[in-house]
Design brief:
With 426 residues, the chain is α+β, with helices and mostly antiparallel strands. Helices cover 38% and strands 20% of the residues. The protein is built from 16 helices and 16 strands. It has helices spanning 19-34, 49-56, 61-66, 85-94, 138-155, 171-187, 194-202, 204-207, 213-217, 231-247, 291-294, 309-318, 340-354, 369-378, 389-394, 416-424, and strands at 39-40, 46-48, 68-71, 77-80, 103-112, 124-133, 162-167, 252-253, 265-272, 281-287, 302-308, 331-335, 360-362, 383-387, 396-401, 409-412. The strands form 3 sheets. It has an 8-stranded mixed beta sheet with strand order 1-5-6-11-10-9-7-8. The chain has a 5-stranded mixed beta sheet with strand order 13-12-14-15-16, sandwiched between helices. Strands 2-4-3 form a 3-stranded antiparallel beta sheet. Helix 1 packs antiparallel against helix 5 (138-155) and helix 5 packs parallel to helix 10 (231-247). The longest helix is centred in the middle third of the chain and has 18 residues, at 138-155. It binds adenosine-5'-triphosphate and magnesium ion (MG). Residues 61, 260 line the site of magnesium ion. Residues 83, 113, 115, 120-122, 125, 127, 260, 279, 281-284, 306, 308, 310-311 line the site of adenosine-5'-triphosphate.
Length: 426
């Protein structure tokens, strides 16, 4: 036998048994973003490597270690997108969507990062992204957070996620804080690990995010960003909290929350859960007022978030919140006897004409009733329709209920749509 080829590690198939859950999540997402007037944008999965280096930042986990970067046949350096914000801004700039306009955009699709695969962490994963451009005030930070909160409401997850909130202040505040932080880190250099030492000068805020307990220990008495916030930055954050309080969205202020990407300023936030183990962040975002300009556009404020779909689906499965998921077929058509197969096909086509939402499967490949019923059962259909020679002669059909207690009945074919509508309604 020829050797089977396997999928790439960390890149998963979504099997027919998995897709109903994904489809349900996708539908809720579409409904939710529509409820806020957001428009869908679809970007390519491959971009110039420079796009991500310039936006996410050279000294970040993503750019340093996680990107799938390759040369194409022209010798150009391309990268499978590790996230969507940079591509979205690139597209917005390229097509003149951003300057002097308000744009509320969303997208959904695969992202690629070369990380160590484990539960909730994959090399191809999927994000739902929401990006809002053109409004600098905290009203818009509040709107996108409200939108994210509505996802949890729609899924029944409100009690299982908490909102962590922080502000990084304006770029000027950050610069002042940066100097103070570097001075502190220099004084504790011996307790820092290699990553922290390397980042100390290039991206010191990232050191705050370190998962190493020794590094965390020497951060306890580090200067606090809070003390370096300008009045304007404080006002931005205060306004956001005021709106969140007014609409009843609870949050925890987490001064250590800095996010792994360089482009954030002012608001940053994460929704975290305790139900997924180590991979507990299901949604993360913030404001990125400098990004559009950094990528060659005219200055345009922006704020957004990305939600990890695998983690969301895992969470819903773990908490058994997906409810009943649809089977592929509602009705399975069986036939046996001379001339009955074409009658069965014709009946199935008529049903599809008159009931466009009905999912009808016709038995193919022959076999006795017993075998056909087995298939009908396996299809998940609630009803089997049987065309035997008697039914064919009398323009009738026998209706057998595969779930529940209803008695089998034989009726005129033309009565079928009414009966099916009644039976499948609930
Ligand atoms: P983490 O700290 O878990 O590595 P991150 O800060 O790198 O997350 P973001 O870049 O903010 O993640 O991406 C937003 C969301 O996308 C995350 O909160 C998470 O839900 C999801 N996500 C990120 N990386 C992965 C991955 N490798 N596999 C599955 N989901 C992921
Ligand atoms: Mg990461």
């Amino acid at each position: 036998m020829a050797k089977q080829i396997q999928a790439i590690r960390g890149m998963n198939d979504c099997l027919p048994s998995d897709t109903p859950a994904w489809q349900k999540v996708e539908q809720v997402v579409r409904d939710t973003v529509a409820a806020y007037g957001y428009s869908e944008i679809r970007m390519p999965v491959v971009e110039s490597t420079d796009l991500f280096k310039r936006s996410i930042g050279e000294v970040t986990d993503i750019v340093e270690k996680e990107m799938y970067t390759f040369e194409d046949r022209n010798g150009d350096s391309l990268t499978l997108r590790p996230e969507g914000t940079a591509s979205c801004v690139r597209a917005g700039n390229q097509h003149g969507l951003l300057y002097n306009q308000e744009q509320r955009l969303w997208y959904m699709g695969p992202m690629f990062r070369h990380e160590r695969p484990q539960k909730g962490r994959y090399r191809q994963f999927h994000q739902i992204g929401v990006e809002s451009f053109g409004v600098a005030s905290a009203d818009m930070d509040a709107e996108v957070i409200m939108l994210s909160a509505r996802f949890w409401k729609a899924f029944g997850l409100e009690k299982h996620v908490t909102l962590q909130l922080n502000t990084l202040g304006s770029n000027a505040c950050r610069a002042a804080y940066r100097d103070a932080l570097i001075a502190h880190l220099e004084a504790h250099k011996d307790s820092l690990d290699e990553d922290a030492k390397r980042r100390m000068y290039t991206n010191p805020l990232r050191v705050l995010d370190s998962k190493n307990p020794e590094v965390q220990a020497c951060l306890v008495d580090a200067p606090k960003l809070d003390d370096y916030l300008s009045e304007e930055s404080q006002a931005h954050f205060a306004r956001l909290r005021e709106i969140l309080d007014a609409v009843g969205i609870e949050y925890e202020i987490n001064p250590r929350l800095v996010r792994g990407l360089d482009y954030y300023n002012h608001t940053v936030f994460e929704w975290v859960t305790e139900s997924l183990g180590a991979q507990g962040t299901v949604c993360a975002g913030g404001r990125y007022d400098g990004l559009v300009e950094q990528l060659g556009g005219k200055p345009t404020p922006g704020v957004g978030f990305a939600m990890g779909m695998e983690r969301l689906v895992l969470l819903l499965e773990t908490l058994e919140l997906l409810g009943e998921l649809p089977e592929p077929a509602d009705v399975y058509v069986i036939s046996a006897g001379s001339g009955t197969l074409s009658a069965a096909f014709a009946l199935a086509e008529q049903l599809r004409d008159s009931m466009p939402k009905l999912r009808v499967m016709t038995h193919c490949g022959g076999g006795n009733f017993k075998k056909q019923f087995k298939r009908a059962d396996k299809s998940g259909a609630r009803i089997a329709l049987i065309i035997g020679e008697d039914e064919l002669a009398n323009q009738q059909v026998t209706v057998k209920y595969l779930r529940g207690q209803n008695e089998q009945q034989t009726i005129a074919q033309q009565e079928l749509p009414t009966l099916l509508t009644q039976q499948l309604e609930d």
